Amino acid sequence: MYDDVKNIEKLFSLDDKELLALADETRRKYLGDGVYLRGIIEFSNICDKRCAYCGISADNTLLERYHLSSEEILKAAGHIASCGIKTVVLQSGETDSLDDDWLARIIKEIKSSCDMAVTVSVGEKSFETYKKWKDAGADRYLLKIETTDPEIYSGLHPGMSLENRKRCLSDLKMLGYETGSGTLVGLPGQTVRHIAADIKYFNDNGFEMIGTGPFIPHKNTPLQDAKAGDVALVLRTIAVTRIVMKTVNMPATTAIGSMDRDFRDEALKWGANVLMPNFTPVPYKRLYEIYPGKRCISEPAGACAGCMEHLTEGAGRFIDWSRGGSARNEK
Ligand code: SF4
After folding, report:
1. Who wins on pLDDT, 289 or 272?
2. What is the pLDDT of residues 194-215, one digit of tens each?
3. How many angstroms is it from 301 CA to the middle of ligand 1?
4. Which among 17, 103, 153, 277 counts the fewest CB atoms within 10 Å?
5. Ligand 1 atom closest to Cα of residue 92
6. How far is the CA of 291 from the centre of ligand 1 (A)?
């Protein structure tokens, strides 16, 4: 039914009430009311790439760069574990200077000392590198594609290729990672048909995690004067993704929590089932500024773990403290 872009696009023409009801019913039927937590550590903002929408792109020479030590990362991971959260996300910009063996040692150390799933999100790498981290114990990998439209993709990613991004995602699946991708909603030139095509690509490839967020213009990027993504369309994209992909894990992203108000409770109502409290140490949080206005950058690390309960209850849901692996692999 959803192997055709047009059928997915048709879902976008449902009115808000119908779409929300269908997404909510699908989420409840396939996943229940639980919301999984993933503790995120943004361990470095060093990036070699020049994505036109990104505040930590290599072109932003005004940004102070940082890289956490292994000790700082392991301390933050221990903090996540002590809060009862069973997934740590290790995220950074994409750089050839990242030492694969160093990261493999950290993954191993976390896996041996804490009962947690490890998600890695450090960009495009070789099959061998992905394998090394999988062998070290990594469970999941996030690599957002942002758009699958070749023209929009090439206009936003100088020196990068859509084919290589897809190659990486296919390698990750082949290696047995729970694989995550996602769309940036509101990119210049993007239409609902493009977004529907993204969702078809995600579904065709059996990805287990999809992150959908709004484009938010950053003043130190070439897109500083572009219009921000529309929150209503972000929520509708989450809903359509839920209806098409059923059991997929989807976060209410920090980006959707950083609009003129925090829309994460709405995202949970429109089909999301994951929240990602930030455990990056405070001095560094403000430097991982992919987009401006990021929520809670001065809160102590992990403080938002507490407000997750509040958010979840506000949406009529509860926190599921399990690892929250993919139900897609079990259905
Ligand atoms: S989106 Fe990722 S790869 Fe692109 S510039 Fe930002 S951190 Fe680097």
Report:
1. 272
2. 999 999 999 999 999 999 999 9
3. 23
4. 17
5. 7
6. 11
CA distances from 97 to 61, 76, 142, 144, 221 (A): 18, 22, 19, 21, 23
Mutate which of 44, 45, 53, 57 for ligand 1? The one with the most ligand atoms within 8 Å of its CB, which is 57
pLDDT for the residue 331: 41
Summarize pLDDT for 27-62 with one digit per residue, the tens.
Answer: 999 999 999 999 999 999 999 999 999 999 999 999
pTM exceeding 0.85: yes
CB burial of 153-183 (b: ≥16 within 10 Å; e: otherwise) equals beebbeebebeebbebbebbbebebbbbbbb
What is the token pair recorded at 52? 């036109």
**Do residues 312 and 275 make contact, with C-beta atoms less than 8 angstroms apart?**
yes
CA of 274 to the centre of ligand 1 (A): 22
Question: What domains sit in the chain, N to C, each tagged with a CATH number?
Answer: 5-320 (3.20.20.70)
Q: How many CB atoms lie within 10 A of CB 300?
A: 11
Partnered with residue 42 across adjacent β-strands are 91
d(CA 298, CA 269): 27
40 neighbors 278 (Cβ within 8 angstroms): yes
Report the chain's terminal Cα–Cα distance, integer Å: 18
Taking the C-alpha atoms of residue 303 and residue 70, their distance in angstroms, rounded to an integer, is 22
